[in-house]
Fold this protein.
Amino acid sequence: MQTMSELDLCATSSESFLRFPEDFLWGVSTAGHQVEGNNCNQWSDWEQAGRIKSGDSCGRACDWWENAERDFDIARDLGLKALRLSLEWSRIEPEENCFDPQALQRYRQMLEGLHQRGIEPIICLHHFTHPRWFEKRGAFLRPDAPRLFERFAREAARAVGALCRFWVTFNEPNVYAACGYVLGEFPPGRKGELLNALRVNSMQARAHVLAYRAIHELLPDTRVGWAQHYVVFEPARGIMNRWVASLLDRLFNHVFFELIEDGQLAFPFSLLNGQVSDAKGCCDFVGLNVYSRFHVALDLRHASTLFTRLFVPRHVPQGDRGVENPYGEAYPQAITRAVKRAARLGKPIYIMENGVPDAADRIRPWLIVNVLRELHGLIECGHDIRGYLHWTLTDNFEWNEGWRLRFGLVALDPETQQRTLRNSAKLFSDIIRGNGLAAPMPDEDALLSKAMP
Ligand code: BGC
């Protein structure tokens, strides 16, 4: 079942232990809305409108607004070195141009709490959510959106900047635009608006540039980047399937890269006014969020998804299914493709998210081990990969899927807030403490057989 990795061609290590670089940043990623509880943003409205497919509500989530420190203790006990969290713009600027000092104080307290536990915080400024007033004004389709985002970024950097060296401006601009404007799965729930999705991405690139400059002006030594989601689109057999798969790949995986790499979209999308010349080279690192492979076939019934159908063959490793669709194939080699794409920008790379929905922890250990092997091989090949953040620490509110998909190293009962460590937490912790993993692992065959459906 194991496919030959592209890396087998260049991996040179013959050691039986795959050691990572000394200062490698091992950690986890989280997002404000998914963990804090009781937020008031455009996602709370989406939930109130009954748009969460599982019918769940976010409620207290992981209760971080009241007590993030409970999970910080777990993170410390696991030996994590970094934790990425996002600042809820809707808490910090609940009304336009009115900033809430108490919210900023709570974030300061959280960041201090991480430092006290020896954990490096990484801040993300936009992880899918923003204030209601911003959504009502048209969000990133409004010409003044980059300025509004810059003002928020500046305020946040002023208030908490001394406590954080790494800033992510946007989490997954491609997912935000595709789900909100093409698939209708995220607010504002628009379908088939491909041109608007591209416009949103170029506005976000402008906002990224302004925020990048504002943060550097206030905090010259910080490192600022963004987190790009990368999916492998594998064509079914046939030339038409190959063509649509490469179109999806281009639109989903490459648009934001092109904006930051060249300051504009490549032809023919360059004709759509995607010019953001200031964005060229504007990042100190590239963050990669990598999860899945999807197979792609042309299907004339699906106009809103560019006449494509995404599917997951039955006999491939995969985690739990979503309410309507499979989450995708768990495909460790996706990391290699993503890193090779990101490397073209010539900046350090951090894996900012990687994981699998897996309540029973059946496949997660296999995924972690195999992804880290890919990463180790890439580092040996000379790629500048500085860290790996797993998604996620504690099960959290998974957007449209509610509580149905469980990505945590730690299982959560949202009712009682009780936490239970999954085996993967122990595995990841051992890897961090040893700064590497054995190759192969002693129970390799068992891991693979559990990963299969
Ligand atoms: C998002 C997370 C999400 C995870 C799992 C990523 O694309 O950044 O917010 O929970 O995927 O679906």
